Amino acid sequence: MRDISLHLSDIIENSCAAGSSEIRISLSFNSASGMLQTEITDNGKGMCADTVLRVTDPFYTSRTTRKVGLGLPLFKANAEMSGGKFSLESELGKGTTVKASFDMSSVDGKPLGNLAEALLSAAAGRGGIRFILNFKVDENEFVFDTEQVKEILGGQLELSDVNVYTFLKEYLTTNINETMAGKLH
User: Model's pTM, two decimal places?
Assistant: First the structure.
């Protein structure tokens, strides 16, 4: 995948498919070390220990529509190629947490990509799932919670409404860029 936001989209899609009602996405960048820490946590159906061991094998997938599953194996490979780490914890009936770190200064590092689009495209199509983004770059922090947006909308409009979507895309893009303050791309 070209950038980290595409990896995040893939993992978010996995979380949605696992029946999650809440997905937390946390990204923290330290400009002194050049490391980006990512963590995606869901409260979906989780995985058994055997599946956790096999899930980063590109020739393993739980899907019946294809014979390979490249999302997590590529995420792990890209993290490790940049000098970062990858881990996955899951428990049946409790959910899954995927963590990866990336050395953003590495020649093998991937750019962050369009984080706003990755989050909003997932959230807009799934009104029943709460998405929480915590994005931190050094001392700057931005938190976005779809539950708060829904409260403001008062049940009158959905996130998928074109006017709401357009506003939120600009809102997210602006706040993510301000949080990055030119330190992360």
Answer: 0.90
